[in-house]
Predict the structure.
Amino acid sequence: MLNIALPKGRLGERVYTMLKQAGYGCPEIEKPDRRLVFENPEVGVRYFWVKPHDVTIYVERGAADLGIAGKDILLEHSPDLYELLDLKTGICRMCVAGPGDFQDDRGKLLRVATKFPHIAGEYYAGKSRDVELIKLNGSIELAPILGLSDVIVDIVETGRTLVENGLTVLEEICPISARLVANPAAYRFQRAEIDLLAERLGREIQDI
């Protein structure tokens, strides 16, 4: 049986629908209750709901064979996982954003507020730009408004929140989407089952 970690929320629900259409449905998961673990022995899957940022931990440590994780989490934490498939959902962008009239003075240290210090650090290192990284856990848009930072590095989906707070996208770092990831040991010992699931799921993506 394949143990699959699904992220709680709309993304996990969308991906479960794709898995169901691919032949890996689980009637128990569709019932309105508060359980976290659901299985369907007939198709050989066990699903469980976890917080999105915890998916890679469950998979990396072997509690799950497979999981659905955003590319942002994979880039930020570099977990020891196999990335098998781009699910073409949960699509957004990792961007630098700030006031529309922002001009970067390279003679000064650039203050960058972000939930993704590794991604931001790598990006500015590639530009040979000295920065001060300010790690925040939420409400990133406040940082330049209140003078805590010059710019932010964050995920942008529609850009509406930026606009409502007087900010705009200044640079795009990379595209982000949900990925199917696998535990290396699980992939080694259950490769046939995992490859079949990935193949069937890939067909669903092509039909979208």
